[in-house]
Fold this protein.
Amino acid sequence: MTPLKVVPGLLRVASVLLAYRLDELVDAAHLFRPLKLLRPFAARPRVDVSRLPRGERLRLAMTELGPIFVKAGQVLSTRRDLVPADIADELALLQDQVPPFPGSEARAIVERELKATVTTLYSSFDETALASASIAQVHAATLHDGRAVVVKVLRPGIEKKIARDISLLRSLGELAQRWHPNADKIRPLDVVAEVEKMLENELDLQREGASASLLRRNFHSGVDLYVPEVHWDLTTSGVLTLERVYGVSADDIAAIEAAGIDRKALAAKGVRVFYEQVFRDNFFHADAHPGNIWVDVQRIDEPRFIALDFGIMGSLPEADQYWLAQNFIALFERDYARIAQLHVDAGWMPSSVRLDELEAAVRTVCEPYFTRPLSQISLAELVVKLFQTARRFELTLQPQLILLQKTLLNIEGVGRTLDPDIDIWSVAHPVLKRILRQRYSPLRTLRDVRKRLPEWFHAAPQFPELIRDALRQVARGEQQQRVDPLMLVQQEYAARMQRRTLACSLLGGSLLIVASLLALGVGVYGIWPAIITGIAGIVAFIASWPRKHR
C-alpha cells in the first residue's frame, strides 16, 4: 500500500479514535497529532462515551472499526506485559457481535455456494440468524432425514473489507517497525502477520470444517469434549454445515447448578482438556471464550464440554512445544535455574544473557506467588509477570506463542468462573508430566525410528561422498575461509560417526525387517518379534548417541 493510499485509512482510524475521546492514543502517535484539528468533523459514536472508562471506549472504537481491529484487540488483550490491565480486561470482552445481514442474502449465498436450491439441500432453513459476528453468521436448518444442523455463512463482501484493513494494518506495522524504539523485540510486522493468518483461516469455512473434524477425532470418545460432526456434502469455503448441538455457556453458572452438575469436577476437566490439546495433540482451540465453550447439561454424572467455532485453531512447532512444556514443568517445580537455561536454549533470549541474573529475576517474580495457597495462584497472571520480567533481558516476542497465551488466559478464566478455588497447578502438573512421559518414552522413540528408517536408507549412500567432497575442497584450498585444524578433526570425527551410524542403522533396519516378517507368524515364533524389535531400537539408539555420553 503506497503512502497516499494509507491516508484515507489513517483518517478513518483517527476519526473514530477522536470520536471515542481516545486523545491519549492520538497524542502517542505523533503521526496522528495534526488530525486532532479534525475533531469537529469526526464521526459521532453510537453511544454516549463521555463517562465511559478508556478501556471500554477503546473496545467500542475497535468494534466500530471492523473485524481486523477486533482481532487485533483480542491478540493485544493477551499481551498484558505490553498493555495496561484496564485496557486488556476490556479488549478481552471483544466478541464480534454485530447486527446480522438479511436472511434472504444468506439463502442466496448458500444456493450459490452449494449449486442447488435451499429446499433441495435442506428440509427447512430459518432465515432468522441464530448468531451473528463480523465475519459470518449462523442459521438453523434441518436435513431431509430430520437431523438438526446449523449453517454458517460468510458475510457478503467480507473478503474485500478484510483485505483493505489488513493492508492498512500492515502499513501501520511498518511504521511501528521503523519508529518504535523496541521494534526488534515487539516485532510488530510478525504480530500483523499472525493476525493476517488468523483472519485468512477464518475466511475459509472448509478449513474450519477440517479443523472441527481433526478436533473431533482427537476427542473421539466424546467423554470430556464433544465436537459437532461436519456435513461435508453441504460444506464449501463459503458455507459450513455442522451438527446442531445444545448446551449452555460455560459461564452460565445458574444453569449449570440447576442441572446438578459438579462445577469443581467440570473446572478440573476443562484444565486437563486444554493441556491435552496443547501438549498431547499439538492442536488446540484458540478462541476458547465462554461463548464458544458450552457445557452439556444433559450429562450430570459425567459432565463434558461442547466446542463451537473452529475458525481459530493453534499449533506449535515441535521444538517450541518441547521448550514450552519443559518451562511449565520447571515452573511447577520451582526450578528457576532451569527456567533461565531453557529460555536461552530455546533461542527466546540471546546467549549473552547472564543466567544467574535471569534466574534471580525469575525467582523474585515467582516466590511471592508461592507464599499463597495454590488455589489462589493464577498461572496466567504469573506467566504475564514472567514475560514482563523477561523483556528486561531482551526477550524476543514469539508470535507463534501469542495464540497460546490468549488461550491460556481464556481457559483459566473459564476454570475460575466454574470453580473460584480451583488449584490449577495440582490439576495441570500431573497431566503434563504424564503427556511428556508418553511423548518421549522409549516406545515412542522406537516408533519414530521405524518411521524414519526409509528416509535414512534413502539418504545414507550420499553421506560418505558428501563428507569426502568437503574434505577434498578443504585440502585443495577451494574454500575461501581459513580452516581451523580443530574443525578438521571434528569433521573426521563426524565422518567416523556417520559411518558408524550408517552401519548401526543398516543393522537396526535389518532387525526391524526380520521382526516384521516374524510378526506375521507370531503364533509360531512367540515373543521373538518383540525381542528383535527391542534390540533394533537399542542399536538405533546407540547409533544416535554421541560418544561423549557413552
Remarks:
- The beta strands are 124-132, 136-142, 148-154, 225-226, 239-243, 248-249, 284-285, 293-295, 305-307, 313-314.
